[in-house]
Specification:
The complex is a heterodimer of chains A (266) and B (736). Chain A has helices at 2-15, 18-40, 43-62, 67-110, 130-135, 204-210, 243-262; strands spanning 120-127, 137-139, 144-153, 158-165, 169-177, 180-188, 198-200, 222-227, 234-236, 239-241. Chain A is an alpha+beta fold. Chain A has 2 domains: 2-111 and 240-262, no CATH class; 120-227, Immunoglobulin-like. The longest helix of chain A has 44 residues, at 67-110. Chain B is 28% helix and 25% strand. Chain B has 19 helices and 36 strands. The longest helix of chain B has 40 residues, at 63-102. Classes of the chains: A alpha+beta (266), B alpha+beta (736). At the A-B interface, α2, α3, α4, α6 and α7 of A face α3, α4 and α10 of B.
């Protein structure tokens, strides 16, 4: 019984591994994107544009002894490529926004790993005023310890603390400055969790793409609090790569397969 | 004459030999072309603006779709760049090589370029008449500033014969083409004279499958060397488009798209299909098959017949299914054919559509066809063109290099590749009406025009030649309207005869005009035809005459034979005819059941010549045959053994009967021709010369089609091969 549970647990962990998630995600996104591309593009025009490009490529080969024809075909290839990209632009607009939003969210989980237990990491605070800079203090939970005194960089209004987590878990460290206190989440361990590398004040678009925490209060003397989480690499055949590259390659492959199966011109 | 009367029967007869069996293991081409109707501009702009404000990860991922687009276009540019770089880098080396090998290819050339437009069957008398009426201003300009003359044709005046002579510069005795059909002396059956196609010799048996191993073998039966090969050897480039009897395509320096004699995917010279809900056991005499449409719950289902399954012995023909859903009001219908979905109104053609025939084990034959919706009520009837070899995915080579047909397909879309692309038999069999036939013929013609102008753009030096078949097909099928009392148009008052042939000549003249705009004085333009045209009002069954005059015997009790001499008693037969003009003796030692002593053959030839020459049609009292020519007197060369023994030259208005062509003996010798195929040229060659127009003046009394090859070689400064039968014309002066 215990063996069964162990095997089930092993399989489950495989299914929830970053690699499995990227594979599943690539399959789903690859299929969806091809379908969306097929329905939002002028398939006939794209087909013709591609055929024309191929024809001009063949012309270069067929008339290779006739330099004016070769050069003319080359010009037509460039023009044809422009036309083709123009036709692909509209469906690109339809797919790129949902894809980016999705990727931002997935990146929270797969972009970085939590801080390993007992491994030092840096907590960096940017302040807007010298008051905040000079009086900032750190309030740590028991599981997080400071391993070195704070380093103040006045030229950049920046304070850096070196910390370490003793146990797996999600904790809050509090930074007090100029009479206000704000918190920053810290993830320690090995689990696949949602990670926010930075907490920001304002900076709407940057928060959209980089942060998974609420904005700092507008009147806070602190502009940002960041943690240097290690980047996550997914191992494939001995090579580590960022999940985005893997997603890019796999979704392209899936897309190529589905475009053939569904008869969609890309 | 394009489609021999025996083409369809020949297709059935020789199906086993001439099937297209080169079915490659390639994945099906999905060419679904969906139209996206939605997606407003407003949404696009909203998304565009949003994208501008999403800077962070937008650059990180292109994804399937946009990613493909970027990668694909980059790939195209990259490949083009590599090609261009290669071409540029190696060009000086290749030029130097050519220079050292051939010196300057154009050094002795009188012209930089020769453009030859072949208007198959353009008749000099009609051309002259229409020029006189002011309908052909461009041809008249050529006549006035250059040359206009009759162009002597070949014995017999049939397109494959004449065009073979055109390209090789020799008589049929040296190029081996005497008709569309040759006859097999071992069994008296016909074979296609231009090419022989056989499947791979070896097969691997896996279960019920027998997988062909090796290449399809295509053997060219036409001998002799086309003059563009001589040009190529001298470093002169040629673009050759749809010249008849260029299948299989041969290697040379230039590009070539094969013309007449390219088979369809079934291996025949064109088998159309009529899909119908109308119950009928009738079979078409030639060129087509009838397929039932099954109607159930408002949905009609049928199929397009394809080639025989090459993987299974007696596996039957492959099929491509389709579905028709008549729409409200029964004026149009929605079709689903493979991955294609389209709507046709009654009387409308589809575009060329991919037709895939899956044989199993991943083998697929690729063709293209067009649908024509004939009617929806009370019966559903759909005409489907013969399934042409897909030029973008050719299962048999139809061009040199192979990529040339693909290039044209990518540039202009799919096009007809069948040698006899205009479906004359469908009109003959009343499956198509006049308008539908003309729409099909001119559709093909427009494709051909696009190819010509592309070739003109690409061939600034060298030879550019293109043959247009429309002139031939339309004259064959609409001559009936040119005459007051043609048997095939007696039900239509003469005043209501449409001016189809006049409009055809005007169209060809406009084409000449557009070509003239593209050329300068350093280009020689020739407009030629392989033969002229005459009425075909009366049919003559020479086999019947031979039977009634004791030269051909039927088995006891028979008064008529079947097709291809079924019920002919060869042990008592001395002469027979098949094909359009050829008459054969049943010679001992040559034919399998020959009885004529070779020593007596000359006497028999003379006897037949004497009796047939001047034969009178008793119904009208006019002469039906104006000349019978003994082959030994008109042919010379290494292939004369394959020629008919006599060539029958019919009078204007006469031609071999439909039955006679198919080796059938009937009771009647003469009869009216009531088919739409109402004009012809397979008669006495002296009565149907072709035309010669030239942009430059030639001094030549009686130019012949055999002279074209030597003339072109001479104008490019190339020494004429000794075996040529034609002579080069003398150029008077360059026109300005």
């Amino acid at each position: 019984m215990g063996r069964v549970v162990a095997i089930a647990g092993f399989n489950l962990s495989l299914l929830t591994s970053p690699l499995a998630i990227v594979i599943v995600l690539s399959l789903v996104v690859g299929l969806l994107m091809v379908v969306v591309f097929g329905h939002t593009s002028d398939q006939k025009a794209i087909g013709i544009a591609k055929d024309q490009l191929k024809a001009h490529l063949l012309a270069v080969r067929l008339y290779r002894d006739q330099i004016p024809v070769v050069m003319g075909s080359y010009g037509k290839i460039l023009r044809g490529t422009g036309r083709y990209l123009k036709l692909a632009f509209k469906p690109l607009l339809y797919v790129i926004i949902p894809i980016i939003l999705l990727m931002v969210q997935v990146d929270r989980y797969l972009g970085q790993t939590p801080i390993p237990t007992n491994a030092p990491f840096l907590l960096t605070v940017h302040t807007t005023s010298s008051d905040g800079f000079n009086n900032a203090t750190l309030d740590l939970p028991p599981e997080i310890t400071m391993t070195a005194p704070a380093v103040h960089i006045p030229a950049e209004n920046e304070i850096v603390w070196r910390l370490a987590g003793a146990r797996d878990g999600k904790y809050e460290v509090k930074i007090a400055a100029a009479g206000q206190s704000v918190a920053k989440a810290v993830c320690v361990g090995t689990n696949l969790v949602r990670i926010s590398t930075v907490r920001l004040r304002g900076h709407f678009w940057e928060r959209m793409f980089s942060s998974a925490e609420p904005a700092l209060p507008d009147d806070s003397p602190i502009e940002s609090i960041s943690i240097n989480y290690p980047d996550r690499n997914i191992e494939i055949a001995g090579y580590g790569m960022n999940w985005i590259w893997l997603f890019f390659i796999l979704s392209m492959i899936v897309g190529f397969i589905f475009k053939e199966l569904l008869g969609i011109q890309i | 004459m394009k489609r021999p009367c025996g083409a369809g029967a020949l297709a059935r007869l020789r199906a086993a030999d001439i099937k297209s069996r080169d079915m490659h293991d390639r994945p099906p081409v999905h060419r679904a072309r969906k139209h996206f109707a939605g997606g407003g501009a407003r949404a696009t702009w909203v998304l565009l603006i949003a994208l501008i404000f999403l800077p962070a990860l937008a650059h990180a991922y292109a994804g399937p779709g946009a990613g493909f687009a970027v990668l694909s276009s980059f790939w195209a540019i990259f490949v083009a760049f590599l090609y261009s770089f290669y071409a540029l880098m190696t060009w000086p080396v290749r030029q130097l090589f050519r220079f050292l090998r051939r010196r300057n290819a154009y050094g002795k050339a009188t012209f930089e370029r020769a453009v030859i437009l072949g208007f198959d069957g353009m008749d000099p008398e009609l051309a002259e008449r229409f020029m006189k009426e002011g309908r052909l201003p461009n041809l008249a300009k050529l006549r006035d500033t250059g040359t206009f003359s009759k162009l002597r044709t070949t014995f017999p005046p049939i397109s494959p014969v004449a065009w073979s002579t055109f390209m090789t510069g020799v008589n049929p005795g040296k190029h081996n083409i005497y008709d569309f059909l040759g006859r097999d002396t071992s069994n008296y059956l016909p074979y296609l004279s231009s090419a022989e196609i056989r499947g791979p010799k070896r097969h691997i048996k896996i279960g019920k499958y027998s997988i062909p191993f090796g290449k399809t073998q295509i053997k060219a039966m036409r001998k002799g060397t086309p003059f563009w090969h001589w040009l190529g050897n001298a470093g002169i480039f040629s673009s050759v488009i749809r010249v008849p009897v260029t299948f299989p395509p041969e290697r040379f320096q230039g590009v070539l798209l094969s013309g007449m004699c390219v088979p369809d995917l079934k291996g025949s010279q064109g088998t159309f299909c009529l899909c119908t809900t109308r119950a009928s056991d009738d079979k078409f005499r030639e060129g087509g098959v009838r397929v039932a449409i099954e109607r159930k719950n408002g949905v009609c289902r049928s199929y397009v017949p394809g080639p025989d399954n090459p993987l299974i012995e007696k596996g039957g023909e492959l099929r491509a299914d389709f579905e028709i859903r008549p729409e409200l009001g029964s004026k149009s219908a929605r079709f689903v054919f493979g991955s294609e979905k389209f709507t046709l109104k009654i009387g409308e053609y589809s575009e060329w559509l991919p037709a895939e025939f899956k044989a199993g084990m991943g083998f697929t034959a690729h063709g293209i066809c067009r649908f024509y919706l004939k009617g929806l009520s009370p019966e559903v009837e759909v005409y489907v063109t013969p399934v042409n070899i897909d030029p973008g995915h050719p299962d048999l080579p139809i061009s040199h290099p192979v990529t040339y047909s693909i290039y044209l397909a990518k540039l202009f879309g799919p096009y007809a590749t069948l040698g006899l692309a205009e479906d004359t038999w469908a009109l003959n069999e009343h499956v198509l009406d006049d308008d539908a036939f003309l729409a099909q013929a001119y559709g093909n013609h427009e494709d051909r025009e696009r190819m010509l102008f592309d070739a003109l753009d690409k061939t600034k030096q060298g030879l550019c030649t293109c043959v247009f078949d429309t002139t031939d097909r339309v004259q064959h099928m609409f001559w009936r309207y040119l005459e007051e009392d043609h048997p095939a148009a007696r039900d239509v008052p003469h005043s209501q005869h449409p001016p189809v042939i006049q409009e055809l000549y005007e169209r060809m003249d406009r084409l000449v005009g557009r070509v003239m705009e593209k050329i300068d004085d350093d280009t020689l333009l020739l407009v030629i035809s392989d033969h002229g045209f005459k009425s075909f009002a009366r049919c003559m069954n020479v086999n019947a005459w031979l039977h009634q005059n004791g030269y051909l015997a039927l088995k006891d009790g028979k008064t008529e034979s079947g097709d291809w001499f079924d019920d002919v008693d060869w042990s008592r037969t001395r002469a027979y005819t098949m094909g359009l003009n050829g008459l054969y003796l049943n010679i001992k030692g040559r034919e399998k059941q020959g009885i004529v002593d070779p020593a007596e053959a000359d006497a028999l030839k003379g006897e037949l010549q004497k009796k047939l020459n001047g034969l009178v049609d008793p119904a009208s009292g006019t002469v039906g045959i104006t000349g019978v020519f003994i082959a030994d007197n008109v042919y010379r060369g290494p292939y004369t053994d394959n020629s008919p023994d006599l060539i029958v030259g019919y009078a204007a208005g006469y031609r071999a009967s439909w039955d006679s062509v198919m080796g059938k003996v009937t009771g009647q010798i003469f009869e009216d021709n009531i088919k739409a195929w109402s004009g012809d040229h397979c008669i006495d060659p002296r009565l149907v010369p072709g035309v010669l127009f030239s942009s430059h003046k030639f001094i030549e009394d009686k130019p012949a089609i055999v002279d074209v090859a030597p003339t072109i070689l001479k104008l490019f400064g190339i020494a004429l091969p000794g075996h040529f039968d034609g002579k080069a014309w003398t150029l008077a002066a360059k026109a300005h």
